[in-house]
Sequence to fold (151 residues):
Amino acid sequence: MAFISDKDRASIAKMFEENLGNPVRLILFTIPPSPLFIPGRPSCETCKDVQQLIEEIASLSDKLTLEIHNLEREREVAERYGITRVPALLVASGDEGRVRYFGAPAGYEFSTLIQDIQAVSKHQTALSQATRDALAAIDEPIHLQVFVTPT
Fold:
């Protein structure tokens, strides 16, 4: 069963056709489900569904590529991107515009993901010049996190 309806797939594909500029890499970190329950082994209840959703999105444009990495087996790749938990999705175009999602990009976050893919592809943001200037004045590394909850 598909997560994205045929009508929505057509709308998103058209949106991507009109708005994607540069190629975008969708980099997904997951832990595949195991048929065995092993005490102490990390598991991921949403990884399978998130992978299917991201595969559906990636299929909507030739400008999207999907890389899937197993967090347990590809630790060096995860470390390179600073990934420590799953599901994790990075949206990147070259070395520019890396946006990270942890958890399932569902509900309101789904439309934000579609918008982020387009923004990363164009190497553009909707930030005002004043905000860009304020950010440019930051001269030391910062760690910024945004948490979203349906409530």
About this structure: DSSP finds five helices and four strands in the chain. The chain has one domain: 6-136. The chain has a mean pLDDT of 90. The longest strand covers residues 24-30.
